[in-house]
Amino acid sequence: MFDWFKTKSVDEPNVFTAEEIEFYLLLVYHGIVNKNLLNPEYHAKIAAYFEKALFEGYGGDLFSFRIESKLFSNITKLRRSLYVFSAAKQYSQVREMSAIINLKGEKAEFKEFREKASQVFDNYNKNYLKTEFNTAVGQSQMAREYTDYMVNQTPLIQYRTQRDKRVRDEHAILDGITLPPEDPFWRYNMPKNGWNCRCFTVPIYKGKETDLTQRDLSDLEDEKKFPKLFRMNPGIDGYIFDPKQHPYFSVAKGDAGFKKANYNLFVP
Description:
The chain is mainly alpha-helical. The protein has helices at 18-29, 40-58, 70-101, 110-151, 169-172, 185-189, 234-237, 256-260; strands spanning 156-160, 178-179, 200-204. A three-stranded antiparallel beta sheet has the order 2-1-3, with helices on one face. The longest helix has 42 residues, at 110-151. The protein starts with 17 loop residues before the first helix and ends in an 8-residue tail after the last helix.
C-alpha cells in the first residue's frame, strides 16, 4: 500500500512518488478513476499540501487562534476553499487524462497512454502546483494581514511593491497608494495581483490618504495585466482561488450537480 498521507517537504514540487504516479495512471487508464469518480487519496494529499501553504502564509494553524475570533473564522473558510480547489484540480486533471485514452477512436495501449498522461500529471503536480502553492502562501498572508487591519482598526494601509527591477510596470503604478482598510479600493486590489506577485501592504498610522483621481489606474481594467482571478480580497472573500474565474472549475455538460457536491470528495 502507498503512504498517500505522508506529505513531503513543501520545498519539493513533486508531492508523489514514482510508484504512486504509476498506480494513479493505471487507475485512470482502466476507468477506476474517472471524472465522475475521483480518487479520495489523491485529494487528501493535494489538500494537505495546500494546507501547509495556508498555515505558512497565515502564520498559524487551526489551533493558533481562538474559536470565537475573526482570525479563526477566516482560516477555516480559506482551508475549506483549498479543499474545494483541490477537488476541482483533480477533476480537471482526470478529464484531460481521460481524453488521451481513446485519441484515435480506439483504446490506446497503456505504454502510449502513460507517456502522454505522465506529461499531464507533471503539469498539474509539478509545474502548476508549485505556482499554486506560492500563490496560496501569498494570498493567505494577505488574508491574515487584512483581517488584522480590520480587527485592530488600523487607520491606513499602504500598497508596496518590492521596488526592484523585477516589479511589473502595472504593479509599480499602485506602489504607495495609502487608504483606510475599509476603502473600496482594497475590495479588488489587495495583493496578490497576479501569478508570482511579490507585492504586499504595510500599516500606516500617520499619513495622508492617496487621491486616486491623481493616478492613472486604467490598467486595472486590463485583464492581461490584472487577471480577473486576482481581482478579489482573500480576507473578505474567504477563498484563495476564485471559483468563478479559475479554469479548474469549468465542468463538462451535466456535471454541475457533481461540482456542487464537491465531486463527492471531502470538504472540512
